[in-house]
Design goal:
With 216 residues, the protein is α/β, with parallel strands linked by helices. The protein is built from ten helices and six strands; from the N terminus they run βαβαβαβαβαβααααα.
Length: 216
């Protein structure tokens, strides 16, 4: 796993680098602001960018948008002290693969980063519930979306994603299919919905009533 750290606090970058390297994760570069994050992402092509939100010169949100559009193979995981729900929603809309609080336990962080490498969203259960709650209640003025031609199996995958079953292994177990088949269906869903990652798929599916959100 090759990681780029983007944070304007040197002490935090040093601590996170030490944690990652202790797990044999390669830190390819460190950025002090969003502009550096975009430039270093272009230069080093990391697999994951761990992105703070509040940074000088260019915010983490703007950097996330640019990286997601220009370098879609790079996965951005926001790691922030922000507790503002609007930041969570905007980060996912901007293409982030995950949104995590800075007080997350290190073991949980490593587990979620491993999941990101498999294409799974990095969200704590509490943040996932907030995301689902936000998009489960569309604004009255929102226009109806055109029907999307998903197969029955793709809808089954979508329903499980919304229920919180996000790993390829668990999806395969629940549907009695191989993990490669799960990946095939997920690629089709992303392509048909014109989305970039599973976190966006979950939000889109609930917002547009493609499936019903699970009871809270």
């Amino acid at each position: 796993m090759r990681v780029l750290i983007a944070d304007d606090h040197a002490l935090f970058r040093d601590g996170l680098r030490s944690l990652l390297e202790a797990r044999s994760i390669e830190v390819v570069a460190e950025a002090r602001n969003g502009r550096e994050a975009v430039s270093l992402a272009r230069q080093h092509l990391p697999e994951i960018v761990v992105m703070d939100l509040s940074m000088p010169e260019m915010s983490g949100l703007e950097a996330t948008r640019l990286i997601s559009v220009e370098l879609p193979d790079i996965k951005v995981v926001v790691l922030t002290a922000s507790e503002d729900d609007a930041d969570l929603f905007e980060a996912i809309k901007s293409g982030a693969q995950g949104f995590l609080p800075k007080d997350i336990e290190s073991a949980r962080l490593f587990s979620l980063l491993d999941g990101v490498m498999r294409g799974e969203p990095a969200l704590t259960p509490g943040l996932a519930r907030k995301l689902l709650s936000e998009f489960a209640h569309p604004a009255a003025a929102r226009q109806a979306q055109p029907p999307t031609l998903l197969t029955d199996r793709e809808r089954e995958v979508l329903e499980l994603l919304v229920e919180g079953v996000t790993s390829n292994h668990d999806l395969a177990d629940r549907l009695f299919i191989s993990e490669n088949t799960v990946k095939y269906h997920l690629r089709n869903i992303l392509s048909k919905l014109h989305l970039q990652n599973r976190a966006q798929v979950i939000a889109y599916a609930v917002r547009n009533h493609l499936v019903e959100p699970p009871p809270t």
